[in-house]
Fold these 2 entries.
Entry 1:
Amino acid sequence: PRFEDGASSAGTRVSHFLPTSRRIVQFSNGKGPGPDARIIYIDGAFDLFHAGHVEILRRARELGDFLLVGIHNDQTVSGKRGAQHPIMNLHERSLSVLACRYVDEVIIGAPWEVSKDTITTFNIWKVVHGTVAESDDFQKEEDNPYAVPKSMGIFEVLESPLDISTSTIIKRIVANHEAYQKRNLKKEASEKKYYEQKSFVTGD
């Protein structure tokens, strides 16, 4: 990894995007939960926000009255997925999620484990997770980040409407880039051959 221009030792790029309270408010719908609202909680990295994210958020929102989304910080995502992740930083990911019509509020830098304190503080009615995910931690018997909501009987796994993940998006980009490079190399070789074989043509 390169450490120029403020790059981190983890290898992820550092954005110079500077969020302000007003900018964050502009992305939010500004509505809070009602006194008896059924608050649904879903968390994740939400990197390279895509159609798969939108659809699982839609499904989650349909279960209750208010959708709260927890977004893990950059260090957590890097630790779980590798040094080259996330592609977008925490603030960029947060604003991408906030801009989604199904989201009511986000927790910026949400903890990896959903604790009893988090559930109590935000009055969470149900915690959900999609079947399409970058890791299977939500299915583990030990070190499960959803152990507390599971023990409380408020955890539910939702069938993800689309089989799309950030990893598949990245693989698609890389594959297209490689195809583009091969096409250009072939074109350059053809042009080089043409000029090498080119000969002078008289005007007679």
Entry 2:
Amino acid sequence: MTSDMETLQSALYLDTVPEPWARRAYPSTAGLAAWFLDLLNRVKELEAWTGDFAMPSTVWLTGFFNPQSFLTAIMQSTARKNGWPLDQVALQCDVTKRNREELRSPPREGAYVHGLFMEGARWDAQAGIIAEGKLKELAPPMPVMLLRAVPADKQDSRGVYPCPVYKTPQRGPTYVWTFHLKTKEKPSKWVLAGVALLLQI
């Protein structure tokens, strides 16, 4: 038995993703069993999407290996359609009150996305703002969000918290984007609380 086989056996026994697999895969903090189920869900999502080459009613943002490219594509397609310079376009994030199951068709511009979680706070769906987290709710799921491109000078800048989006709770190297979420509190409160959106928990 080679040392590589022994390392693989040890990883399988300890329910960790083997290092050669993790090197070729997306960032994840999940154990092997959860990671493999997540991988199957990603493949299923992509197969459904490529089956008819139509934009799904809501996009599972977590399912992308590189979500930044999808977010950039939203901006590029809108900028091309409206004749805007790409460097003067920003991504507007509107959190809806809907669940994934309630949406039957994609929006005319942009995309509905789901599968994000908020860490450090929660989203108050009734008020439509960031609110204090509840006890024992470490990362509550977010409602469906509408992402669309707008001219950078028309993006909401008051009463918003520039919320970073990360792929995993490790944050740092897994940074994806910054979504501007509505808040009644000063943004500094959420900065101190370490509020962020996560694609997987």
